[in-house]
Amino acid sequence: MDDARRFLPLTPQQFHILLALTGEDRHGYGIILEVERRTAGDLRLGTGTLYTAVAGLVDEALIAESKRRLTARDDGRRRYYTLTPLGRRVLEAETARLDALVRQAKRHGVQPAPRPAWSRSK
């Protein structure tokens, strides 16, 4: 079994791409839309950033190209990606790492700043 912690820390882009693939296989643009939705628009992945990160995640076997197509009308040129079991373990390890950091900060009296009003309306 690979030690998932050797991949840590993940970049925010890597974390969000893995998270976007937890629910279903997605193509690149689907990942971009899911990340934007989950972050209420606070993180918008450009295509260059996305595909550079995706290539690295594929090379590390954290995600894999999926053969699945969502519909018969789906464009055959689209590549779909799926989260691998190793990718899920890495995502879980990174979530635990981030959670420990937040708990540590709170123990020291650091609380999250309220989101500005302009960012809540997204």
CATH architecture: Orthogonal Bundle
**Termini separation (Å)?**
41 Å
Listing every helix as H and every strand as E from the N terminus to the C terminus, the arrangement reads HEHHEEHH
- Could you name the CATH homologous superfamily? Winged helix-like DNA-binding domain superfamily/Winged helix DNA-binding domain
Q: Roughly how much helix do the residues carry, as a percent range?
A: 40-55%
How much beta, percentage-wise?
5-15%
Instruction: Describe the main β-sheet briefly.
Output: 3 strands, antiparallel
Counted up, domains total 1
- Assembly annotation: single chain
What structural class do the secondary elements suggest? mainly alpha
> How much is the radius of gyration in Å?
16 Å
Which strand order spans the largest sheet, edge to edge or round the barrel?
Answer: 1-3-2
Short recap of the structure:
With 122 residues, the protein is mainly α.
Task: Reconstruct the topology from this structure.
Layout: H1 12-20, E1 26-27, H2 28-38, H3 47-59, E2 63-66, E3 80-83, H4 85-107, H5 117-120
Antiparallel strand pairs: 1-3, 2-3
Structural features, described:
The protein has helices at residues 12-20, 28-38, 47-59, 85-107, 117-120; strands at residues 26-27, 63-66, 80-83. The chain has 122 residues and is mainly α. It has a 3-stranded antiparallel β-sheet. It is globular. The chain has one domain (8-109): Orthogonal Bundle (Arc Repressor Mutant, subunit A), CATH 1.10.10.10.
